[in-house]
Design a protein that fits this description.
Helices cover 30% and strands 19% of the residues. It is α/β, with parallel strands linked by helices. It has two domains: 393 residues, TIM Barrel; 91 residues, Immunoglobulins (Immunoglobulin-like).
Length: 526
Amino acid sequence: MRRVRPVRSALPVLFALLTLVTGLVAPAATAEPSGARPPEQWRSYWVDGFNEGVYTPAQVERLIDDALAVNANALIVQTARRYDCFCNHALYPRTDAPIDPAPYDPLAEVVARAHAAGLEVHAWVNVNTLWNSATPPTSPDHVYNQHGPNAEGADRWLNRKADGTERVGANTYIDPGHPDAVAYIVAAVQSIVRAYDVDGVNLDYVRYPDGSAQTTHSDWGYNAVSVARFQQATGRTDVPAPADQQWSDWRRDQITHLVRRIYLGLWDVDPSVRLSMDAITYGHGPQAVGGWENTRTYAEVLQDWEGWLDEGIMDTVVTMNYKREWDPDQALMYAEWSEFLADAQGDRQAVNGPALYLNGVDDSVAQVRRALAPTPAGNTAAGWSGYSYATPSMDSATAGAAAERARLADALTTGPDAPFAEPAVVPGMRWKTAPTDGHVAGTLALRDGTALDQARLTLTPLAAPGAREGVTRADGTGWFGFAHVPPGLYLVRADLPSGVTGAPVTVVHVRRGDIAEARLPGLVAR
């Protein structure tokens, strides 16, 4: 059941509703004066959980004041750090970090104070980073303790490199090609949205890990379950090499499938919640390396965020455009990615996220200006997010973080040419507030519950003007989904594997803003 979100500001909502009803609004000449509404521009801090910021109510109060000082309108607050939660009511267990004891709930405290101050809160969730300490988490329910180094067989969710390595230093990771891990991630993200009035979920590490031998492929993804699924999907019997193109495409598809499932999973709980993610921008931009598919983002960590924007399964991409402005080569990289980002956002939104900790205040302000400048094509990024609140400049260690934060606020907001001199509001999402399309989702399984992993499904329009045929595959739990399809009637057809009988087709009616459930019951194995 979808929850009902409280309205924090009634007048703008009532005015928006009235404008949709003919005859209930005064003529344009007597409407709200032009320019009275603040401009739409995302402005936020990332607030990480490895440093103070939300550990106590007093820290949260100071965080809100500091955000308002830079005329921010959103906070990206680390909520699930390493499958531990800075909250009390989620599938993830409560963190072992030194936060105030329960009943203190960091996420609830941030949401309450931020909303009272007019700030949005986006729950920052690390997706595929499992644990980063030699000491295991204290909760027996933590995924590391349930499905980490002590687990065997299909219960072991750890990502693995081609050489068998599962741990880099103290770091362990989740393999997104493991269906049970994917199901847990989706359920955990949904649990946060069900329990807290967050404005969005921000996915971090929604990719394969770093540390590959080459920048043209990934050495990761060799969990035994993942390799077996790849072999099942392709008919191959070998263990693919890291540079194998078919293997790279399959692994990249696993990340995209996870994103699509999270997106539709959030839509099912609360369509108004924004899905954002932290996007990799390693090295030079696509225009300098021969195109998107040649970037380290696409080839090395297998993260196709340009494709997610195009499909519409990511509302907002926030690039981790971490470059040193004082280094000419890195300044060029920053400019290249800034241009690509603004031009790639299409019908969705893209936010430029520079690294405050790598730059002095003056250089950070210069990067803000470049982040928000129009590209040669006339496009502009949707906004800015600074990484991070804890370390607002490269001089924080000597000058003090609080002092540098104050310097940054003054530089961003003081004077007529200051980039954030006036307030702004977070850009709206018309594809959610006034949707023109809908979605299809379902589960493909035998009557006994056995999932038809990677079976091909086709969505064919029967009476849906403007629609095109779509193709997808079921995951290891049988789940499948088609996002953003025009309203109308569709035929859903499954290509059943050998030995399975039953009716492989069904008809669904897609309505604007809703998810149509595709049911293909009665399938059995001969």
